[in-house]
Amino acid sequence: MNQAANANLFSRLFDDLDDPNRLAIETVDGRHISYGDLVARAGQMANVLVSRGVKTGDRVAAQTEKSVSGLVLYLATVRAGAIYLPLNTAYTLNELDYFITDAEPSLVVCDPSKAEGIATIAAKVGAKVETLGPDGKGSLTDAADQASTAFATVMRGNDDLAAILYTSGTTGRSKGAMLSHDNLASNSRSLVGYWRFTTKDILIHALPIYHTHGLFVASNVTLFARASMIFLPKFDPDLVIRLMGRATVLMGVPTFYTRLLQNPALSKETTSHMRLFISGSAPLLADTHREWAARTGHAVLERYGMTETNMNTSNPYDGERVPGAVGHPLPGVSVRVTDPETGKEIARDSIGMIEVRGPNVFKGYWRMPEKTKSEFRDDGFFITGDLGKIDDKGYVHILGRGKDLVISGGFNVYPKEIESEIDAMPGVLESAVIGVPHADFGEGVTAVVVCHPDAGVSETSILKGLDGRLAKFKMPKRVFIVDELPRNTMGKVQKNVLRDMYEDIYARR
Ligand code: AMP
Asked: For the segment 173-198, what is each residue's pLDDT rounded down to a tens digit?
């Protein structure tokens, strides 16, 4: 791998811009930011970072509401040869303490309302603090307004870090995934080609920008393609449908699609200007895929990635987009399915651990060499923790996180298989199957189900419906009907929360 200091993920954007007048970002309040503006602003902000003592390889942590200035901060950090560390806006000061003391940034950028609390934490690691509010203004932009737009992009090696993203950490401590310039650049180039992005594309950007999806997949791909994006502070179904009249691509988590389907304005006509709907970050139900196709005439393109690996697989642009599958490995990415115990590759269509290798795969967990070592095989494959299979047509299917596997009476029960059966029943909207401690079986298969309010679905009706369709050991011991499933901001069902909620149900009986 080339370690000479001759790379920067955005060097072509900063130093080789062919058309500075081309539109890069449009905001909902009507601002138009050209590529030239964006580069100039990134230059100003990079000058501020340097003046605040940020050096090559330093971390710049940011917990700010979504704004164009927030995106500029990311570009400026990378331009200055530093490492961008975005933090989920939901994190409390108590949680931020862990991230800041672990990552030891030299600068923390935060919402003005949190500046006081953050200053105390930042002082522990000698970091400076600047502010940036939801309106995209604060001490950081005040200083940038006065700074020069000229900035000599700091070149780095391909393997040098451009960003650290902390994993959501639903089990144990959150880990900082170290992503290099080449990890991010190679993935963006690949996705631009795979999804046929051109300068004519207009992306509806309604995702948060502290996560892989909104920051790298949505923003990097748009910027690499020199396309443009309409930046929404948050997901708003009515607005998104209105924007479809002149946009071309939407990238969303599955909840975007289910919520859009609930909107009567969604139709073939309202989506006719769009060329592509992409979904990821959590499983898109096959039913949602079919309903979307019937309603709009578009087949959602589902892809699979994670913080540590960027994007691994995608359904094809031209070929069949299979509902419930995440498609083929992207060019240059190898995906295999192994026996979780031995690490040996297993036969097609058998369920095992998904492992990936390629230029997209991260450099390891920040300051956790042992953890990093235990998650890589000797031949460089990363053990994703996702269970799945590759079918005979080469499509990858995800069956859930390994830690969500239920082992009941010594048998492996794959939650997805049972969830699919339950989801197919009339009146059911969605379900989550979890393992709950059980004295006889080790874990008792437990289903938590959301249904239409008037459908008359009950524990008994679900169990009756499953009878004869599932082997006895896979049958849920209990079924709970709830109004909704707990989800995180990326739309992922939080099975750890469900496990905590139902932890002692078998002990109680
Ligand atoms: P994150 O690191 O927050 O992006 O979460 C990554 C995890 O989300 C993966 O390891 C998968 O478990 C899950 N995931 C991402 N995309 C998909 C998808 N299309 N289908 C099913 N699970 C997905």
From this structure: 789 999 999 999 999 999 999 999 99
CB 202 within 8 Å of CB 246:
yes
User: Quick check: 169 pLDDT over 80?
Assistant: no
* 309 in Cβ contact with 360 (< 8 Å): yes
368 CB-side CA count, 13 A: 18
Judge if pTM exceeds 0.85: yes
Give the integer Cα–Cα distance in Å for 113 and 119. 11
CA 292 to CA 228: how far, in whole Å? 25
Helix (H) / strand (E) containing 99 = helix 93-103
Helix or strand holding residue 157 (H, E): none
Mutate to test the pocket of ligand 1, among 279, 304, 414, 494 (most ligand atoms within 8 A of CB): 304
User: Residue 505 corresponds to which tokens in the numbers above?
Assistant: 């149900």
How far away, in angstroms, is 229 Cα from ligand 1 center? 24
CB 343 within 8 A of CB 377: yes
Q: Which atom of ligand 1 approaches the CA of 213 most closely?
A: 4
Q: What pLDDT shows up at residue 170? A: 57
